[in-house]
């Protein structure tokens, strides 16, 4: 492939994907549209990456960046917002992007969704993600687009917000009250997700239109937090909160400045196990052996260079 357009390329997964593609697909041009070039400073060290100043929600801008593209990766997603925000990011954007791909004759599209999506799911996030998948499935049926829908569990990595947040909270507080403590996850390494996307871009025959990206172990949120605390050397007792108190906690956290640590919609999402069904192709179908959360131990507790 000569040109791959990556929407959401300046985010956590996008940065790792660009680095991975730069190593695995030499000579390929990676175009990352962004409204503010400053958001992509970390990518400018990669000679294969071109930052294109564009608003992907604008049809004209979208058409301009897709010109001559061989494939598109859509990583755009939000975790917090109202119904209109989720609709715009998870449904309207895929609809616009699908139309632009048809117009630009882009055949291969990799769209990153999430485990647990369903039209009747309890949260706006999961329902809107399901509606976004339906947009792509309709585009594939009507226009012959070659679509890969990846459904990851929570994604971890050395620079993620999720595990580093819980490590930081345990360094600060002696006890951690936690809503959704028994919610189930199957955390997946960002490097494995990047490899899965790369495989979907380069493989002629995909194992299926929907691929589940999950790690080797199912953990409750309590276990996940405790494992992170243990690796960081600051494990604290976790007090699970009932749903009513979890909702109250999320409401209070939502009043804090900046991006909320937890929202009421997040609590509703955790009512659905964020684990692979086992009925759809997974990472192994792409030849990837999933990495465990324990690999983060060296990040939280790096070896002392004086002992080398």
CATH architecture of the domain at 3-154 and 189-214 and 275-290: 3-Layer(aba) Sandwich
Give the biggest sheet: 7 strands, parallel
Question: How would you state the average pLDDT, rounded?
Answer: 93
Q: Residue share in helices?
A: 25-40%
Low-confidence stretches: none
Measured between the Cα atoms of the first and last residue, the distance is 42 Å
CATH superfamily of the domain at 3-154 and 189-214 and 275-290: NAD(P)-binding Rossmann-like Domain
Order of strands in the sheet with the most strands? 3-2-1-4-5-6-11
Radius of gyration based on Cα positions: 19 Å
Instruction: Tell me the number of helical segments per DSSP (H or I, 4 or more residues long).
Output: 10
Strand content: 15-25%
Give a description of the structure:
With 308 residues, the chain is of the alpha/beta class. The protein has a domain at 3-154 and 189-214 and 275-290: Rossmann fold (3-Layer(aba) Sandwich), CATH 3.40.50. The protein has helices spanning 12-24, 59-66, 83-104, 124-143, 162-172, 190-202, 221-231, 243-254, 264-269, 297-300, and strands at 3-7, 29-34, 49-53, 71-74, 108-112, 146-152, 155-156, 176-179, 184-185, 188-189, 210-213, 219-220, 238-241. The strands form four sheets. The protein has a seven-stranded parallel β-sheet with strand order 3-2-1-4-5-6-11, with helices on both faces. Strands 7-10 form a two-stranded parallel ribbon. Strands 8-13 form a two-stranded parallel ribbon. The model has no long low-confidence stretch (mean pLDDT 93).
């Amino acid at each position: 492939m000569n040109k791959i357009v990556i929407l959401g390329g300046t985010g956590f997964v996008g940065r790792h994907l660009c680095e991975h593609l730069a190593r695995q697909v030499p000579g390929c041009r990676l175009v990352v549209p962004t409204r503010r070039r400053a958001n992509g400073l970390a990518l400018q060290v990669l000679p294969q990456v071109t930052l294109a100043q564009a608003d992907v929600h604008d049809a004209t801008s979208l058409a301009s960046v897709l010109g001559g593209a061989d494939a598109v990766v859509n990583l755009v997603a939000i975790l917090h917002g109202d119904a209109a925000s989720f609709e715009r990011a998870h449904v309207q954007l895929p609809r616009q992007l699908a139309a632009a791909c048809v117009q630009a004759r882009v055949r291969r599209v990799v769209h990153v969704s999430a485990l647990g999506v369903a039209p009747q799911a309890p949260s706006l996030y999961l329902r809107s993600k399901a509606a976004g998948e339906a947009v792509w499935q309709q585009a594939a049926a009507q226009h012959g687009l070659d679509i890969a829908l990846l459904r990851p569990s929570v994604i971890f990595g050395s620079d993620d917000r999720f595990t580093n947040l819980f490590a930081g909270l345990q360094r600060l507080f002696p006890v951690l009250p936690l809503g959704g403590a028994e919610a189930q996850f199957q955390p997946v390494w960002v490097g494995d997700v990047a490899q899965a996307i790369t495989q979907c871009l380069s493989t002629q025959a995909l194992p299926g239109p929907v691929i589940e990206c999950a790690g080797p172990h199912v953990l409750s949120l309590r276990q996940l937090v405790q494992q992170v605390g243990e690796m960081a050397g600051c494990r604290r007792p976790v007090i699970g909160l009932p749903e009513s108190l979890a909702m109250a906690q999320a409401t209070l956290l939502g009043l804090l400045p900046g991006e909320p640590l937890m929202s009421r919609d997040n609590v509703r999402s955790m009512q659905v196990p964020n684990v692979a069904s086992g009925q759809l192709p997974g990472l192994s179908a792409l030849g990837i052996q999933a990495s465990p959360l324990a690999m983060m131990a060296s990040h939280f507790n790096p070896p002392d260079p004086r002992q080398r």
